[in-house]
C-alpha cells in the first residue's frame, strides 16, 4: 500500500499496528471492518490538514479495509503545547465547511465515529440537523441496542437544541482527549477524526467530556482568537449528549443513564 516492503509489525491496539518499513520509515496501519469507515477517516485527515491547524498524520495509503498513516512519535502534554493547540483548533474551526452535516470532500455519507455508524447529511440549520442526526438518530440506535427504552428515547429526543447562529465550522468530530496525540515534537496532533461540518462548541464540549490535559490552557488560548458566544458553558451538556449517546449504543446502559441525566437537565 505504501510501495515499500514491511520489515516488522507491532500491535498497539485492537485493530492498529505499527509497521517498520524497509526504507527506515515507521507507519501506523489501522484495520476497519467497513470500507466507508476507511474512506471517511482518510478524507477526514486530508480535510483537516490545514497549515495553521493542529497537525495530523499524513495518509500514506488505504484500501477497502486498511488505512496507513505516518507514525508520530509520542511525547507528553505541556502547557505550551496546550496553548498552541487551542489557538490552532480555533484556526481549524474558522476554515469552515459547506454546510452543517457536510462530509469532508470525497468522504461518504455513511461514515463512522469510532466503531459506531455516523451519517453525514448536509442541512441548512444546525439545530434541525443536530436534533435529527446527532440526538434522535443515536437515541433510536440505543433503543435497538437495548440501552434505552422507547420512553427514555422520547425523553432524550425532546431536549431543547439551541446554539448561537454561527457559520458551519470544520470539526474533528470525535475530539475526546484520546484523539489528541501529544507528540515528541512538542505539539498536540489530531488523530482518528470523524470530521464534518458542525458547530464549533461541539468539539470544545467533547474535549471536556472525559478530561483533557491542560484543558484550561487549551480553552484560554482558543478564546484569545475565537471567543465562544455568551453562555457556551451552559450549552456543554447539549453538545456532550451526542458522544454520550454514541457510547450508550456501543457500551450499554451505564452511558444511557448519563444521557438521561443530561436530557432531564436540558428540558
UniProtKB/TrEMBL annotation:
<comment type="similarity">
    <text>Belongs to the fructosamine kinase family.</text>
</comment>
<dbReference type="Pfam" id="PF03881">
    <property type="entry name" value="Fructosamin_kin"/>
</dbReference>
<dbReference type="InterPro" id="IPR016477">
    <property type="entry name" value="Fructo-/Ketosamine-3-kinase"/>
</dbReference>
<dbReference type="GO" id="GO:0016301">
    <property type="term" value="F:kinase activity"/>
</dbReference>
<dbReference type="InterPro" id="IPR011009">
    <property type="entry name" value="Kinase-like_dom_sf"/>
</dbReference>
<keyword id="KW-0418">Kinase</keyword>
<keyword id="KW-0808">Transferase</keyword>
<protein>
    <submittedName>
        <fullName>Fructosamine kinase</fullName>
    </submittedName>
</protein>
Amino acid at each position: 500500500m505504501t510501495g515499500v516492503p514491511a520489515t516488522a509489525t507491532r500491535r498497539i491496539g485492537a485493530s492498529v499496528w505499527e509497521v517498520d518499513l524497509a526504507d527506515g520509515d515507521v507507519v501506523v496501519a489501522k484495520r476497519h471492518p467497513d470500507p466507508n469507515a476507511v474512506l471517511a477517516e482518510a478524507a477526514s485527515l486530508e480535510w483537516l490538514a490545514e497549515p495553521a491547524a493542529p497537525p495530523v498524520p499524513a495518509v500514506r495509503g488505504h484500501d477497502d479495509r486498511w488505512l496507513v498513516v505516518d507514525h508520530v512519535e509520542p511525547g507528553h502534554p505541556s502547557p505550551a503545547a496546550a496553548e498552541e493547540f487551542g489557538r490552532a483548533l480555533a484556526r481549524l474551526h474558522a476554515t469552515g465547511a459547506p454546510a452543517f452535516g457536510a462530509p469532508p470532500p470525497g468522504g461518504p455519507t455513511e461514515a463512522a465515529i469510532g466503531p459506531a455508524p455516523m451519517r453525514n447529511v448536509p442541512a441548512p440549520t444546525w439545530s434541525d440537523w443536530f436534533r435529527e442526526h446527532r440526538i434522535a438518530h443515536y437515541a433510536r440506535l440505543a433503543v435497538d441496542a437495548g440501552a434505552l427504552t422507547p420512553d427514555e428515547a422520547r425523553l432524550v429526543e425532546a431536549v431543547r437544541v439551541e446554539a448561537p447562529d454561527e457559520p458551519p465550522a470544520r470539526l474533528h468530530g470525535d475530539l475526546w482527549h484520546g484523539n489528541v496525540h501529544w507528540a515528541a515534537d512538542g505539539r498536540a496532533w489530531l488523530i482518528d477524526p470523524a470530521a464534518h461540518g458542525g458547530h464549533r462548541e461541539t468539539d470544545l464540549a467533547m474535549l471536556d467530556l472525559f478530561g483533557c490535559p491542560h484543558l484550561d490552557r487549551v480553552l484560554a488560548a482558543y478564546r484569545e482568537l475565537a471567543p465562544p458566544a455568551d453562555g457556551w458553558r451552559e450549552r456543554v451538556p447539549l453538545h456532550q449528549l451526542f458522544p454520550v449517546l454514541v457510547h450508550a449504543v456501543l457500551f450499554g446502559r451505564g452511558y444511557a443513564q448519563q444521557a438521561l441525566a443530561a436530557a432531564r437537565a436540558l428540558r
